[in-house]
Structure formats: C-alpha cells, structure tokens
Write a structure and sequence with these properties.
- Chain A has three domains: 168 residues, no CATH class; 195 residues, no CATH class; 199 residues, no CATH class.
- Chain A is 62% helix and 12% strand.
- In chain A, α10 packs parallel to α13 and α18 runs parallel beside α21.
- The radius of gyration of chain A is 32 Å and the shape is elongated.
- With 232 residues, chain B is an alpha/beta fold.
- Chain B is built from seven helices and ten strands.
- The mean pLDDT of chain B is 90.
- The chains are: A alpha+beta (600), B alpha/beta (232).
- At the A-B interface, α16, α19, α20 and α22 of A face α1, α2, α3 and α4 of B.
C-alpha cells in the first residue's frame, strides 16, 4: 500500500512539475481517442431516425419486387404466392415503378418514379407528407431528402420523361432508402445501363396513370412493388432469404433498407475508424518523444530514487502510472466529446424523421476507447521506462546526457556533404530511433492524406448539381480527420525538433564555436527531421492507396499524379516549416553559456 | 617590434541588471603579438574565461573594442563571427568538449570540414596533427577510450586543424592529473616555439611559466603584468 502511494505521489508531482507536457500528452491521446469514439459511436446512433420514420409511415417489414420487361403486371398467382406465405399478415397494393429522368431548371437527376393511388390509405406504407398534398393528376410528390438536394419546392414544375408536372408535395417513407442512399431497384435488376447521374437515385411518387405516360417515353421495363407486413419483423431477413429470388420476386427486408439509409454515415464511419488508427499511430510517435524527453530530464531523479532504495521496477512504474493516468483521463474526455460530436455526423438528413441526438455509448465502445488509449500510452512509454529502469545509479546521479550512438558510415558519408547536411546526418546517426519516429510520423500522415485524396477522387463524381448528403458528410469527416492529422503531425515534428535541439545543445554549440554559422546549425537541426521525413512521405503514398483498397474492398482509379506529388512535396515542405522556429531558436543559444554549463 | 594580432581597448562585459549587475571584464586593454604566448591568471570568478570568450567572439562585449588580425570583432554579424572563428581562431577547453560519438581523427577534422575543406584534405591534416601531438596510434579511438591527457591533446590538435591565427585555451590542464598536465605542457611549449600565437587562461603556474607574459586579473580588471625572461 505504501509503495502504491509512493508511486502515485511521485507520478502526481511529475505531472504538476511539467504541466505543459502533461497537457500536450493528454491532447495528443485525446485527439486519437475522440476520433475513435465518434467512429464507434456511429454504430449506435443511426437506427433511430429510420425506426421513427417506419413507425410514422406504417413502413413495410419487407418489399417484394417483380421485374416486368414489357411493363405488364405479374401474374396474380405469382403475387398470391408471396402474399399467402406463412408470416405475411398484410400487404399493400401492387404498384409499378419505372426509372426516368427528372429535370428542374438546369438540374437533372435519374429518379425512380413510383406509381401510387391518389386516395392513399394503404394498409402498409403510407408516406408521410411533410409539405403540400399527395399525388394527383399532373401533380407529383418528391421524397423530402431528394427535394432538398434538388432545391425543389412545392409549386415548382419539373419535367419527368419529357412531360411537365407540378410538385404537389414532399414526403418521407420507410419503404425505400432516402436520397442519396436509394437502392437501385429497377436499373440494377433489369440490367439497364445507368445514366450519368444514376448512382444516387431520387424518388418521385405519382399516379399510376401519370407513370404510364412517363415510362412509355423512356423504357418499357417496370418493377412492380408489393409492401408486406410480417408477423415477426425481426425475422424479415430470413424471410427474404428464404423466399426471394434474383428477379421475380426479389425481396427486401426492412433491415436492408435501414442499413442502406445508414450508408450516408457508413463511409464517414469507415473514414473515422481508419483515421482513428492513423491518429493513434501519430499519438504513439508524439508520446514516445515526450516520454523520452521526460526520461532524459528526470535522469537525476531516477538516480536519486535508486539511491534511496527504489528498484528499477518502481522507476518504470512511476513513468507508466503517469502516462496511463493521462491515458484514462484522455479516454474519459474523448468519450464525452466524441458522444456529443457523433450527433453532428449522424443527423439523418431530410429523408427521415427525427434527429439522432447525442450518441448512446455502449459498454464495448467505452471499453475499446479506454483500451486503445492505454495501449497508446503503454507503447509510447515502454522504451523510455525500460531505459530509465536500466540506468546505473551512479551514472544517473551524475546526470550526463544519454551517450549518442555512433554510425561510422553516416559520419564518413556526411563528411563530403554541405555543412547543414553534415550536421543533420550526424544528428540522425546519434539518435536513429528518433529519426525512425520522424519517418513513421510522416509516413502515417501521408498515408492518411493519400487515403483521403483517393476517397475524394472516387466520391467526386458528377451529381448533376444536386447536394449529396453522403459526399457532403464524407467531406466533413475527411476534412476533420485531415485537420487532426495535420495538427498531430505538426505537433510531432515540433516535439521531435525540440527533442533534437535539446539533445544536440552541446554539439550545436561546438559546431558554432568551430565556425558553423547559426544558419548552418539551423539547417542541420532541420535536416535531422527532413531527411528521415522524406522516405516516410514516399512510403505513405503507396500505403495510402493500399489502405484505401483494403478498407473499401473496391477497385479505384488512383488520384492524379499532380495531387499525389502535391501531398508528397507539401508534407516535406510542412516539415521544413514546422522545424524552422525550434531549430532557429536552438541554433542561436549562447555558445559560451552552453559550453560552460556542459562537459563532454 | 612585432605587430599585435589580437588587441582590446577598454573591453567591458557586464551581466545582470540594476543592483544585480556584475562587471565580469572591466576596461581591459590588451595587445598580443604574433607568435607570443600570453597566460592570464587570477582567482576563480575573476573574469578570465569571460575575457577569453570575448576574444574569441563567443560572447559580445558590453563596451570597448576587440580587434583580431586587424578586424574589429565586436561589430561583426553572427555569420562573420562564425567565419572568423572558423578561419582564425582555435579553441581549447578545460572540459575537452570532444564529440563522444566521433573518433579522435573525426573530432580533429570537424573544424576543417565546417570550413569547407575536402574530406580527404581534412583527414590528411587531422592525421598529421594527431601524429604531431603523439596520438598517431590512437586516431580511431573514441574519446571514452582515451585518457584525460590524450583527450586534451586531441582537442589541441582540433584547435590547430584550420591553422588559426591565435589559439585560445581555457584552463587546458584544469581537468588533468600531473602526468597528463606534463604532456600538455610539452605540447604548448612546442607550439610556442613553432611561433603559434597563444592566449592561455590558467590557474597552473607551470603552464604560465611557458608563456612570454603573465597577465594577472582580479575583479575583471588586469592588475599586473609579468614579462618572463627570454621574452621579447
């Protein structure tokens, strides 16, 4: 008990003595774990708006579709075969759906036009009007999410298949995923080649008579949809799997519709989870540097602890406890902030009712976030703690700087280089592990940026001028991750440069005493970061493409060479900029003071 | 009479502000001729090392002038000061200040490499200098594998690697035992006889005895000068 108290007291005093470093460590871990929290929390929040909408619109538990190549309705026997299946308790009328093109002003979109009776009041699936009235002759209703993306209002006129219609109203429904997550009912099952804007389909309700006039102008192929109510809605996927076929009939469970709706957030969720891994790696790199610096500065204290009987285990424990406590704090803060922010990424859009609100964090989310924070702290602290524990008492009491490594080849190679590179390479040779961290940090950052660039290139397809919630949300998430990646990478570069400046204080002062100019020393300190960052940036390009491929499981066209080159050169240039100030300050320390204070 | 290569006029250096102001160097007038060895002696904290730092351009004076090889030092930019240290000054420190990860020869060639000499030329000069200081068989040793006296001889070789106008030595035997001190003494004596201009700050009377002149310093000021027998 006394030993535990001693460890806690020592850890607490360390944190109080170095509050800025403690706060930096906390923030670094928090950035990574907040991103992870948001990514995980999205699992828990996307169901509610769909379920609210399903309840409010008497949404179907399953939807049956019959493809008709010539437009004729399916045989009644085929329909009866579905409606009389065990477990089906009610069904709506058999209604046709065709695909056509909708134009509003200069905006054009491919839509699924669904014929519905003007009387309404079907037992299953009653789209809820959010403005205006229901369908009538010459009057159509637009799914609200689609209307919002199109910028359409009640009273506007749209052209469907070449014929003008008045927008009579807007509505929401749970029978089909809302824009832009629309499932490709007709185009895909009929094997019709999609048009230029056919990825994100809009939904328009109109009377069957109007639909007949529209679809005659485009293609004879029609899908007839039948909404079903099941005795056991939870078993809808099993029902669909047991009785559905590829074309006649295909069956869609309500859970599939819900999941398609959640597609708006799925891309964002994937981006957040990948981003969280990359940010965690950056956090490890940053924390390792901070932990290493703290260990060096505490060498004398480590020696004193040992001198009064402290064991190597106790010394390592103090370092671990400090960082693990900060990790738990960071995780707690990240869970709170992440829960609040998750709602921003999961607002359902206009296609569904209600709002998601703050996320409800499950026990598994909480556990994963805490474990990741602890792992980040543990990984970053392991080497410095072991090094501290292994230091000899007398050596530690004399508090010398850690002996630099010698790399004969680096020293020989550097002799032929200009002075800044000579100094920079020799600094790298003195601390190869720190150079490896600089490589890792840049590689992770460029990996993230290339992944985001690839995602942006893939998602930057032509939407015909329509707002697209999915791409907008993905852009929002990737922008957030990009900013976090850049902030953490910049912080890491500054940490690394400061650590190098502190470690190379004596070497820099000697170089200046023997004739190196402050600019040459600044260049050397900067080169010690830029030289290892360059291969990291090069590694990050293929790594980013591989990560994108692995995460999305899709083939894709790589971003433009110009874009990749911009990321590559920009990241190296950013390292140069981030090192400039600490390196410049480090190179201008008074030489006489440093040499008087330190002995070789 | 030989012309002074190093000269100061009313040289002053103050630290601190207000009541805490300390005058470490107080109106020092000094002239060191080419080939002359000058020893600066005095009690600890009297300003000897600060004077040496001012002469070498490692610190800037509060007032007065420093002139090296006919060029005013105190008005120089940092870049010009760096060039001056690189081309005209060699430093020897009490604590050796060798790079622990570099071998003896690599340490010696550092100033030549910083001066832009080719690696081959720098290496040849460094090996020659190590031979001159009696360390031809220790060129590939790290400082940790050398004795105190050997380390200081490496440091002296390093100070000579760019053929400086003047060598400034700060307590060169301060960290050495008697045997090592004797090694360094012999080396300074050889440098003196070879015509190298030397300014040595020291507590060690044996080092001072090898000089042409001994300057005594107290409370930042030069209070006495002794010209030794045989000096010009």
């Amino acid at each position: 008990m006394g030993r535990l108290l001693l460890v806690l007291r020592l850890a607490w005093r360390d944190v109080r003595r170095r509050p800025v470093e403690a706060i930096l460590a906390l923030l670094v871990m928090m950035v990574a774990t907040t991103t992870l929290t948001i990514g995980l929390a999205l699992n828990d929040v996307t169901d509610h708006p769909y379920e609210q909408t399903k309840a409010a619109t008497a949404g179907p538990d399953a939807v049956a579709g019959f493809l008709s190549e010539n437009g004729a309705p399916p045989a009644s026997a085929a329909v009866d075969a579905i409606t009389r299946l065990p477990g089906v308790t009610a069904h709506g009328p058999l209604m046709p759906m065709a695909h056509t093109t909708l134009t509003l002003g200069r905006r054009t979109a491919t839509v699924q036009a669904w014929g519905r009776e003007p009387a309404g009041g079907d037992p299953v699936d009653r789209p809820k009007l959010t403005s205006g009235g229901w369908v009538g002759a010459g009057s159509v209703v637009l799914e609200r999410g689609f209307a919002d993306a199109l910028g359409a209002r009640v009273g506007d006129h749209v052209t469907l298949g070449g014929r003008s219609f008045r927008i009579g109203g807007t509505a929401v429904s749970a029978a089909l995923p809302s824009y832009p997550s629309s499932l490709c009912h007709l185009l895909c099952f009929a094997g019709i080649a999609p048009g230029p804007h056919a990825f994100d389909l809009g939904l328009v309700w109109l009377t069957p008579a109007d639909l007949a006039t529209v679809h005659e102008r485009t293609t004879p192929a029609v899908v007839y949809l039948l909404d079903l109510r099941l005795a056991d809605p939870a078993a809808a996927p099993a029902f669909a799997a047991a009785h559905g076929r590829e074309t006649a009939p295909f069956l869609l469970a309500w859970q599939q519709i819900r999941d398609a709706d959640a597609g708006v957030t799925r891309s964002a969720q994937t981006a957040l989870q990948v981003g969280a891994v990359l940010l965690a790696l950056l956090a490890v790199a940053g924390l390792t540097v901070l932990a290493g610096r703290r260990t060096l500065e505490q060498t004398r204290r480590v020696g004193l602890l040992k001198a009064v009987g402290g064991t190597p285990g106790l010394i390592a424990l103090v370092l671990f406890v400090e960082h693990l406590a900060l990790a738990v704090l960071a995780a707690a803060a990240a869970l709170g902030v992440g829960r609040l922010l998750a709602g921003r990424f999961t607002a359902p859009g206009a296609g569904l009712l209600g709002s998601s609100g703050p996320a409800t964090l499950t026990a598994s989310t909480v556990a994963v976030v805490i474990v990741v924070a602890l792992l980040v702290a543990l990984t970053a602290t392991l080497l410095p703690a072991l090094r501290a524990a292994r230091s000899a008492t007398i050596t530690a009491l004399e508090a010398p700087a850690r002996t630099p490594r010698r790399h004969g080849r680096v020293i020989a190679l550097s002799a032929a280089l200009p002075v800044p590179l000579l100094l920079g390479l020799r600094l790298i040779g003195r601390r190869p592990a720190r150079a490896a961290l600089a490589t890792l940090s840049t590689a992770v950052t460029v990996t993230g940026l290339v992944t985001i660039l690839t995602s942006a290139a893939v998602n930057a397809r032509d939407t015909g001028g329509l707002h697209n919630l999915r791409t907008e949300r993905l852009a929002q998430v990737t922008t957030t991750i990009t900013v976090m990646l850049l902030v953490l990478a910049a912080a890491n570069t500054v940490f690394l440069t400061w650590a190098t400046v502190a470690d190379a204080r004596h070497a820099s002062a000697l170089a200046r005493a023997f004739g190196a100019t402050p600019d040459q020393v600044t260049g050397g300190l900067s080169a010690a970061q830029v030289v290892p960052a360059a291969p990291g940036a090069l590694l990050g390009v293929p790594a980013g493409l591989i990560v994108y491929r692995a995460v999305t499981q899709t083939s894709f066209s790589a971003p433009s060479v110009a874009g990749l080159a911009a990321v590559l050169l920009g990241s190296v240039l950013a390292v140069v900029v981030c090192t400039a100030i600490p390196a410049g300050l480090g190179a201008r320390r008074p030489v006489a003071d440093v040499l008087s204070a330190e002995s070789a | 009479m030989t012309e002074a290569v190093l000269r100061t006029r009313k040289l002053r250096k103050e630290f601190g502000k207000g009541d805490g102001r300390v005058r470490a160097v107080d109106d020092v007038d000094l002239a060191v001729d080419a080939g002359e060895t000058v020893a600066v002696m005095g009690p600890s904290g009297c300003g000897k090392s600060t004077l040496l730092h001012l002469l070498g351009g490692l610190q800037r004076p509060t007032g007065g002038e420093v002139e090296l090889g006919g060029r005013r030092v105190e008005t120089m930019s940092e870049r010009a000061l760096a060039r001056l240290r690189r081309d005209r000054i060699g430093f020897v420190f009490q604590a050796f200040h060798l790079m622990p990860e570099l071998t003896a020869v690599e340490n010696v060639e550092v100033p030549a490499l910083l001066a832009g000499r080719s690696p081959r030329a720098a290496r040849t000069t460094a090996l020659d200098l190590l031979d001159q200081v009696g360390l031809a068989d220790r060129t590939g040793h790290l400082p940790s594998a050398l004795s105190g006296g050997q380390r200081q001889r490496v440091a002296i070789a390093r100070a000579l690697s760019t053929e400086p106008l003047v060598v400034l030595a700060d307590e060169p035997t301060g960290n050495l035992d008697s045997a090592a001190t004797a090694e360094v003494l012999r080396l300074f004596d050889r440098l003196h006889r070879a015509g190298q201009t030397l300014v040595v700050v020291t507590h060690d009377a044996r080092i001072a005895a090898t000089a042409d002149r001994i300057l005594s310093m107290r409370d930042g000021a030069l209070v006495d000068q002794t010209v030794l027998a045989g000096a010009a």
